[in-house]
Amino acid sequence: MNPTKAKLRGMWALANGGTLTEAYYRHPVMLSEVDRLSRTDRFGAAVAFSSSMAPYLMRTRVRRRVMDFCDCDSQKWLAYAEGGGFPARVAYKMEGKRLARRERAWASVFDATILITSAEAKSLRPYVARGRLHVVGNGVSLPLLPEAAPVHPPTVGFVGVMDYQPNVDAVCRFVDRCWMEIREAIPGARFLIVGRSPVAAVRRLARLPGVEVTGGVPDVRVVLERMDVSVAPMRIAQGLQNKVLEAMASAKPVVMSCRAEEGLGGEHGRDYIVSKSDEAFIRDVRHLLRDASERRRIGEAARQYVATHHRWGDMLSRFELIVTGQVQRSSPVADVASLRVPPRPVFETLS
Q1: Would the pTM of this model clear 0.85, i.e. be above it?
Q2: How does DSSP assign 252-273, residue by residue?
Q3: Would 68 disulfide with which of 34, 55, 114, 312, CB 3.0-4.6 Å?
């Protein structure tokens, strides 16, 4: 897909009453392939992942359609509008409102709709028939931990795709508002910004003392081992933050904003730290860098929380029941606890 052409399609659509999201991802080759498969096959089930793929699913000839929004993209656009300048703010708000209407329309006609948290599901609940709205959280693998802690300077880290605006905003604000005070208190401390495709604003941060922008790495788990503290200072956040779950799975204490915590069900002070201001971020990160026993306590609790609530096997079993239409009981309030997971996989029911 040509990004320039896709952006032009999106802007044209937005100017003419459509949504940028649908037009951006509308591609003739993809459309042709979906139509070809629908003519030649009769599928038992089909899943669209995220709102951008919903129009393709509407074209398919299939017995059961499942819409996995993950989180509602419309809410991200509306969040962008809160912090954007003119005229971007107007465009973001327009896209958010139009896409929200489309999300409600898609959710009302699909056989099942999946969201990643109950908070995300709340906005769609009035538009989805009873028993068709579900919550399935993200899973994470538990990596093996090193037998001995590696020796390195005090290290804070952030992991994420670095051309994604919420991530860019998070690290730039953290460096601008918090990092230099942390480094003054902890001489030699480092801040690792880990993730592919760093934009120019992120690359410039590497000029500052102690800041390292790695770009993409072969294995993020290796970089996580170098971190003493992981931060998630998100101002724009929807759904469940994988970066947070991965750090917790590696037994790293995470200091996060209130927005980053919204999809989690852990306990502040036990499983992670929630900092409600720049001053709190500075204080909490400094405290953890100075106190190895506190880092260890929170890190161990974090890993146990992920092992209990976010194992891939549990999440995928719930997802499987929904896709195959074998959900024994589905709560109208979209509570994952309402799904009884069988002891064995049920994929063979479609064969």
Answers
A1: no
A2: --EEE-HHHHTT--S-BTTTBE
A3: 114
